[in-house]
Design brief:
With 237 residues, the protein is mostly beta strands. Helices cover 0% and strands 46% of the residues. It is built from no helices and 17 strands. The strands form 2 sheets. Strands 1, 2, 4, 5, 8, 13, 14, 15 and 17 form a 9-stranded antiparallel sheet that branches. β9 and β10 form a beta hairpin.
């Protein structure tokens, strides 16, 4: 198990079922309510070989560093570190990712909404990579992934253009990620400043009203852990 936390505390383009955003769809955010990270719980999902550790981050920025192992969040079962809380109904959750180490090309960190804490659970995972090196059908740092049916293969939604200048690049520390739920529609957003947001995609999945919502990290290297610095964690109201 991951150790307990040890620190105190527009134009809107709707995209359904897997189309990636294009064009000028920049959205101004509303007010941010910082999350009480003291209330978050921690878990290693799928019994990774290297247990995760959550450490204090910069308390001024309202965040923490998450170090986790895990083979991947993909396929029919997942291995990763998860810092989460239970959330019912709609939400609009965001964080700044200040940095992410790269023990593997496919190291992943991001925001996850999960049906349960089993390895094969249905979920939405809007995630990012440590850099913008080319990956399968992706020339940027962001990707939207989901498991539609429990214990079956995950799928991904890739950027519309897979070559050339990335539409959704990571540029740490100026990298922000956001996941919004409205009923069964889950929308991922990308930002470089936490103020102006661009839609990545929207996908519809009939998850229950109450989900496990939080920040996930998988090393994708069973012999080495990864570390993500999450800052400015909160909900947009």
């Amino acid at each position: 198990m991951i150790k307990k936390l040890k620190f105190p505390a527009l134009m809107f383009l709707v995209l359904i079922n897997g189309s990636v955003s294009t064009g000028q769809n920049v959205i101004k955010q509303g007010n941010i309510r910082p999350s009480d990270v003291k209330s978050f719980k921690t878990a290693d999902i799928g019994n990774p070989a290297i247990a995760g550790v959550t450490m204090a981050g910069n308390s001024v920025k309202g965040g923490f560093n998450l170090t986790a192992g895990g083979a991947d969040v993909w396929g029919v079962k997942d291995e990763f570190g998860f810092v989460y809380f239970e959330k019912s109904g709609d939400f609009d959750f965001m964080t700044q990712v200040e940095s992410l180490t790269a023990p593997h090309l496919y190291t992943k960190a991001g925001i996850m909404a999960r049906e349960d804490l089993t390895a094969g659970s249905r979920h939405i995972f809007f995630q990012l990579f440590p850099d913008n090196r080319p990956r399968n059908k992706n020339n940027g740092g962001f990707e939207f992934q989901y498991r539609q049916l429990a214990n079956l293969e995950m799928k991904a939604i890739y950027p519309a253009v897979s070559t050339g200048t990335p539409e959704f690049p990571v540029a740490f520390p100026n990298t922000w990620i956001r996941l919004r739920r409205v009923k069964n529609d889950f929308t991922g957003y990308y930002s470089t400043d936490g103020l102006n947001w661009k839609v990545y995609t929207t996908y519809s999945l009939d998850l229950p009203s109450k989900v496990y919502l939080g920040l996930a990290l998988t090393s994708h290297n069973i012999a080495e852990s990864a570390t993500a610095a999450f800052r400015n964690i909160g909900e947009i109201k």
